[in-house]
Design a protein that fits this description.
By secondary structure, this protein is α+β, with helices and mostly antiparallel strands. Helix content is 43%, strand content 12%. The protein has 15 helices and 10 strands. The strands form 3 sheets. A 4-stranded antiparallel beta sheet has the order 4-5-8-7, with no helix packed on it. The protein is globular and about 70 Å long.
Length: 470
């Protein structure tokens, strides 16, 4: 899953492959009314991940049409579901969408695990009953009919991204024959949310989805899909469809190691909405598989290294070891014809990762840039002069020197009024100009989004707190 929360894989397509699809086992991308309907009702329920307005031309249409129904009993039910500890959201929503037919009936019998354990059988069935009522009460078919031309144009605009996907790599690498139905869905209301759910039907047929969000627009406010920003996400999401079921087959094999590792990277994972060791496990394997795809398609070594660093920045500090394990698998295909057959080896590798996770974190933290001093006051000072118009912060190594990433801390109202940020010539110092008030508590956080080394290694979040004099 990418929350994406947009996937931040940035590729240079100047020197990349021209393989594309060589077999016609993937239909052209399309808008799916089930996906749209589910994103709409969770938007009405104020679900943060379904409330973005990246494609405002479309989300305004949703607001105009559906705003009278924000208190519908379905919406109230969704709000209650989201209050629970394992609240229904993110990919659980899209899993429900693909488990329904065009009349909003379940395609398979719901259980406590299907369509997702976050729903539970009783809640899933109640949701479907209320969803049908909502569809009728709102005359949602009218909304979809009014937007058919928009949907058709979106489908056409996504074609250049679709045409670059080498689907044969998936079937070759994972060792699975192309007996699934592969489906790309353009999720217009999903913002930067991208998902890779799948469904196995009672007749044994399996449908694999890449549900792509819409987060870029052109000068006319129309959705646009660029190779740099959308192809990597498509690549990522299809890997989910081949990976997720592997854990579902035997979670006990990985549980102990997964739980141990998750505790060490919990903060990083939860900041990306990965709230369990299972999600962490799937995300790590998908991200390693994406890098394997890059290597197999002769991406520039610099781009591959940047991607490895990017994943370490996200907390997957064992990504290189996992990638090496995938290489071992791919070099032993005479013994292991499918990745599924190799998974016991992955389980053994995870025992090692769990035992060494502290060392991985420590080694990578040593490479991260760190704040070493502040000129004008000490962090935590309670007697800072309110007339101070700037602060000078020094790092132990040069930064990239582009952009800035300063966030608020626990209290949004404690953020200083920033005016500008400059880098020193050696890029080891930043000077922030601001305006302060007397007798006020301040705090802000420097983050690794922009404050990173030239080769992309991000700093850990660093909170600065102080109080000005009366």
């Amino acid at each position: 899953m990418t929350i994406k929360l947009v996937s931040t894989l940035f590729f240079s397509f100047i020197t990349i492959f021209c393989l594309g699809q060589t077999t016609n086992i993937l239909e052209k991308p399309k808008v799916d009314e089930r996906v749209e309907l589910l994103s709409i009702v969770f938007r009405l329920a104020e679900s943060q991940e379904y409330s973005r307005e990246d494609f405002k031309l479309y989300t305004d249409k949703i607001e105009d049409y559906y705003s009278p129904y924000k208190n519908h009993e379905l919406i109230e039910f969704i709000k209650e579901l989201r209050k629970k500890e394992a609240g229904v959201g993110y990919d659980a929503v899209m899993k429900m969408a693909i488990h329904l037919d065009n009349q909003l009936n379940p395609l398979v019998e719901f259980t406590d695990e299907i369509p997702d354990k976050r729903w539970g059988k009783d809640n899933a069935n109640k949701f479907v009953r209320l969803l049908k009522k909502f569809y009728k009460d709102t005359n949602s078919q009218k909304f979809f009919n009014e937007n058919k031309l928009l949907y058709a144009e979106i489908n056409e605009r996504f074609l250049p991204v679709y045409e670059h996907l080498d689907l044969n790599w998936y079937t070759t690498f994972y060792g699975k024959e192309p007996n699934e139905e592969f489906i790309i869905v353009n999720g217009l209301g999903n913002g930067g949310g991208n998902y890779g759910p799948s469904i196995e039907l009672p007749n044994g047929e399996r449908k694999v989805y890449a549900i792509m969000g819409t987060w870029e627009t052109d000068s006319l406010n129309m959705a646009k899909f660029t190779l740099d920003n959308h192809f990597p996400t498509l690549l990522h999401e299809f890997n989910h469809s081949f990976v997720n079921y592997l854990l579902e087959k035997n979670p006990k094999l990985y549980k102990k190691s997964g739980e141990k590792m998750f505790e060490f990277v919990k903060s990083d994972m939860e900041s990306q909405a990965y709230r369990s060791w299972e999600i962490m496990f799937n995300e790590a394997l998908v991200r390693a598989a994406v890098i394997k795809y890059m290597k197999d398609h002769n991406f520039d070594e610099k781009i591959i290294n940047e991607e490895i660093i990017r994943q370490k920045n996200r907390g997957f500090v064992w990504i290189e070891q996992l990638l090496s394990e995938l290489e071992k698998y791919d070099n032993s295909r005479d013994i292991y014809p499918t990745l599924e057959s190799y998974m016991p080896n992955i389980a053994k590798a995870y025992i090692t990762y769990a035992n060494e996770i502290e060392d991985y974190i420590k080694e990578y933290d040593e490479e991260r840039p760190k704040v070493i001093s502040i000129d004008e006051f000490t962090n935590g000072d309670q007697e800072v002069n309110g007339s101070l118009n700037h602060v000078t912060i020094h790092f132990d190594k040069p930064l990239l020197g582009k952009g800035q990433s300063v966030s608020y801390g626990d209290d949004k109202n404690a953020l200083p009024k920033f005016k500008s940020l400059k880098y020193s010539e050696d890029k080891k110092t930043i000077i922030i100009e601001w305006e302060l008030e007397d007798n006020k508590n301040y705090e802000f956080v420097l983050t690794g989004l922009a404050f990173k080394t030239p080769d992309g290694i991000s700093m850990n979040d660093y909170k600065i707190q102080f109080k000005t004099k009366k």
